[in-house]
Design goal:
Blueprint (H helix, E strand, L loop, with lengths): L1 E4 L2 E4 L1 E6 L6 E9 L3 H10 L2 E5 L4 E12 L10 E10 L1
Antiparallel strand pairs: 1-2, 1-5, 3-4, 4-7, 5-6, 6-7
């Protein structure tokens, strides 16, 4: 499922969308390759996001609630890491 964060598209895997709480929340995994690592982490360090899920017609402002990676050494060419994000509406 496509998830856009500040206009940048990610192919979300294992997407969990929670609209039942007082604030929307989306959790998902996505792959990051060494060539895009810097751009992705620079985006995430901002921790101030406009989230869009076009397939569900959902959009909201969010911050990171949870974040993890399967590998932290993406400086070596050819490496791939699975990132996990849980974004919560502000």
């Amino acid at each position: 499922m496509e998830i856009k964060i500040n206009g940048q598209s990610f192919e979300g895997k294992q997407v969990e969308l929670d609209e039942t709480a007082d604030k929307k929340q989306v959790a998902f995994s996505f792959d990051v390759i060494s060539e895009t690592y810097h751009d992705v982490t620079s985006l995430l360090y901002k921790n101030d996001f406009e989230v869009e899920i076009p397939e569900k017609s959902i959009a909201f402002s969010a911050t990171i609630n949870e974040y993890s990676t399967s590998m932290t050494n993406l400086y070596e060419k050819g490496n791939t890491s699975e990132f996990y994000l849980k974004l919560r509406e502000k």
